[in-house]
Design brief:
Blueprint (H helix, E strand, L loop, with lengths): L8 E6 L19 E2 L2 E2 H11 L4 E6 L4 H6 L4 H9 L3 H9 L5 E6 L10 H5 L9 E6 L2 E4 L4 H12 L3 E7 L9 E5 L9 E6 L10 E10 H7 L12 H10 L4 E5 L3 E4 L3 H12 L6 H12 L1
Parallel strand pairs: 1-4, 1-6, 4-5, 8-12
Antiparallel strand pairs: 2-3, 6-11, 7-13, 8-11, 9-10
Helix pairs in contact: 3-4
């Protein structure tokens, strides 16, 4: 089987500690914080499923059983909803476990900290001829075409070894993210020459920044196994991809058609919630009036 056919697996990294949201994340993962009436992680699963993914591999940490419970059947709740004739809610609850095949794996302490470590945790669940979607559990997207599907199409059409989603960010924010330098004369205009994590503004390669959407070949896993930890002694995805680019692999940093919304800290979480609220026909008018009359 070609690595460019039948991409059916997504790995979602949900093994962080959510420190910036304490105490809310003391007993629940950050990925379970709600955006209106659904947890963050459900939006990621929905994006993956809308992109053709059937198998969702959730890389979690100790204490994250709430994620596993959420994507499981809740018989007592279903019984109560059915008994009380709340059939719309019953359908919502019953549909959640049927969205995909869910596989759970814990990220063990022997792995380094960092956004690249869940790749190693999931490596035995990916075949060597498979490609897969990789998603950060706290990054959301708004787009007409699912962002994961956009990146899959580029990956397949360009016969790439990896594709990462990027978005232009304000220059005063570049040090928060991995930045991209494109090749001068590439075969495809978004092929990267090199990339680096969290450089200060004066050293950043550009203001095109990586966020948590990727399509990876198994080569990424093999490279991750021999990539040294970088900034803050963490294993960074951007360092893995930079090493592959330096070794001549075809790595594409594709600008997306849509909007990336991080929920990595309280301010950006609130901004993302408002953005999603404004997409809801049942909420948009009322929330606009509330902001106008009560906040401004």
């Amino acid at each position: 089987m070609s690595k460019y056919s039948n991409i059916k697996k997504a790995v979602i990294a949900a093994a962080g500690t959510g420190t910036r949201f304490l105490p809310a994340t003391k007993n629940q993962p950050k990925e379970m914080l709600p955006i209106i009436d659904k947890p963050i992680i459900q939006y990621l699963v929905e994006e993956a499923v809308a992109s053709g993914i059937t198998d969702i591999i959730l890389v979690t940490r100790s204490g994250s059983h709430i994620i596993e419970d959420y994507f499981d059947t809740r018989a007592d709740l279903e019984y109560s909803l059915e008994k009380n004739g709340k059939n719309d809610y019953l359908k919502i609850v019953k549909d959640i476990p049927q969205m995909a095949n869910f596989i759970y794996i814990r990220q063990k302490n022997n792995l380094p900290y960092g956004n690249g470590s869940p790749i190693l945790a999931a490596k035995n669940l990916i075949d060597k001829d498979e490609s897969f979607i990789y998603m950060f559990g706290d990054d959301l997207t708004l787009s007409d075409i699912p962002v994961s599907k956009q990146l899959m199409d580029v990956y397949i059409n360009q016969k790439a070894d990896a594709v990462l989603g990027v978005q232009e960010v304000p220059w005063d924010e570049v040090e928060r993210y991995g930045t991209i330098k494109y090749k001068d004369n590439p075969n495809y205009k978004y092929e990267i020459e090199k990339a680096c994590e969290k450089l200060p503004r004066e050293k950043a390669y550009s203001n095109m920044c990586q966020f948590g959407r990727f399509v990876f070949s198994y080569d990424v896993i093999e490279t991750a196994l021999r990539t040294k930890t970088g900034k803050d002694n963490e294993l960074w995805v951007i360092d893995i991809l930079n090493q592959m680019a330096q070794e001549g692999k075809k790595i594409i940093a594709q600008p997306i058609k849509g909007e990336w919304l991080t929920t990595g800290d309280p301010l950006r979480y609130l901004k993302a919630t408002l953005k999603f609220t404004m997409k809801r026909n049942d909420l948009e008018k009322d929330i606009r009036e509330f902001i106008k009359n009560e906040i401004l």
